[in-house]
Design goal:
- By secondary structure, the protein is of the alpha/beta class.
- The chain folds into two domains: 136 residues, Aspartate Aminotransferase, domain 1; 223 residues, Type I PLP-dependent aspartate aminotransferase-like (Major domain) (Aspartate Aminotransferase, domain 2, 3-Layer(aba) Sandwich).
- It contains 14 helices and twelve strands.
- The protein has a seven-stranded mixed β-sheet with strand order 2-8-7-6-5-3-4, sandwiched between helices.
- Helix 3 runs antiparallel to helix 11 and helix 5 crosses helix 10.
- It is globular and about 60 Å long.
Length: 369
Amino acid sequence: MNLANLAPEYIRSIAPYQPGKPISDVARELGMNEADIVKLASNENPLGASPKAMAAIQAALGDLAMYPDGGGFALKAAISKKYSVLPAQIILGNGSNDILELAARTFMRAGDSAVYSQHAFAVYPLATQAVGATGIEVAAKNFGNDLEAMLVAIRADTKMVFLANPNNPTGTFIPGTALRSFVQRVPPNVLVVLDEAYGEYLGDADVYDSVPWLAEFPNVIISHTLSKAYGLAGLRIGFGLAHPQVIDLMNRVRQPFNVNHLAMVAAVAALGDNEFIKASRRVNDTGLSLLRTELARRNLETIPAFGNFITFKVENTKLVFEALLKQGVIVRPIAGYGLPDYLRVTIGTEAQNRRFLAALDVARGQQEK
């Protein structure tokens, strides 16, 4: 008996998500010390976690034998204060991935469809396919979301539109005015999931506030994560903002205690650590400028970047990636996103960025011999 046949065909045909290569794997495979490896593959914060979050975790270690607050009262209060929303408009998740999947599981089923862009975050098609719905991938425009084409792609059976801003893995950005116009034109019976995982990295000229849209458009779900700028990727903590009726339905699907206690206490502290976010943005702005300049100086094409990473085109992509690995520098190949000739590199500290550039020169030089 083939046990795989016990699962529906749409489950069997899923290609599992491939995360960035962890430091421990590279160290083990190449016989290197973990301390000698730089990971610039998963858009993690090079400054680590918020100091206030670290202190909060230390203070909460004595509570590990107790179940977490399933309602997340303290964290919802902190989010409510920061974003000027009601607690009833908030759902907590095990990372923002959890929010995306909860939305799909709550509102879609076989026979429904979801719209998302080419070169968009891999979880959108995964979450869609996992509930038996059909994914409608819209061709990208300049490596980003083609809003007009996405509107045209919406069908009678469409329940959801996924849209990341800035987009991952390409880094492109849609101005807030254009995005609001798009949301306004989406049929009210279609949910628009705005994935703002990298919003904290936007410059002052690009920052927009989508929260007021919730009052105008009850079909909007906004997802956030504390894995990026807040540096809490290892704790898996995120949240969604939406109309109370939407949140109520998602909570019926959400697993009890889907967010652990340490993640919640760390998140409360991190949300109040404005200095850490400012420092993270400064490091990112400086690093992004350096890599943008240096990659251009090497005649390497880059995609306009608005997050904490930059995507660039390079010949012999697979060989360059492997050559970087052998030097202890991990970046992200994105062939699985339909970009086989591109690599994505996370913005690190100045030392990490310069090490990447030096390793890239060696890797490219090896291919030219």
